[in-house]
Amino acid sequence: MNRADLSKQPEQVAAMFDQVSTHYDRTNAVLSVGNAALWRLQATRAVNPQAGERILDIAAGTGTSSVALTHTGAHVVAADFSAGMIKVGRERHAGNPLIEFVQADATALPFADNEFDAVTISFGLRNVVEPRKALAEFFRVTKPGGRVVICEFSTPPNPVIRGAYFAYLNQVMPRVVKLASSNAEAYDYLGESIAAWPTQPVLSGWLRDVGYESVAYKNLTLGIVALHRGVKAAPAAVPAD
Questions:
Q1: Residue 117's domain spans which residues?
Q2: Which Gene Ontology BP annotations are present (predicted)?
């Protein structure tokens, strides 16, 4: 069995997700007590995909979030560092011409500047070894006037809720994982990475630092998850002579 640690070395993270790829979606549904689907629905609504748009879904895994983004006619590039996840996604969604699966590193995206109308990542930024470098890449490939949407586990602001949540991560989740996952050891990393992840205001600051404007976040499920948004400003219009 293989699991990553908080050094988040890319090879370890990729190998870990390769091993859990076949049962990843089922395990997430169990661990989130059904909330995973609701969180992804909120993220899709925030992206607001439109017909003809080109959208980059990073850390797309098996393409669960990507499928929802295609329902209005947008073309989605589903990118993930894990070859195993990409393989499962391609097999599951072979009949959907609006999804293109690409193996890619979030910190060195193989795409042109200003290529996408929207860039989104759900529950993946936390696994990147250099998240601020990844955000700079997101900004680079976002078109002027385009948007970024990040859905990520976060820190409940209420101390009582926060204490109960971390108790769940440390005590309850490991027992549930043993029943639901093909690699229970790998999910120990999940709780560790959530506990070490910065708060919502810090992530908002990172988005502003790389250049996004109109940055805001919305807490979901009492702040267990947060939905972050930003816009890449369009160039100023040049006055006519």
A1: 10-231
A2: menaquinone biosynthetic process; methylation
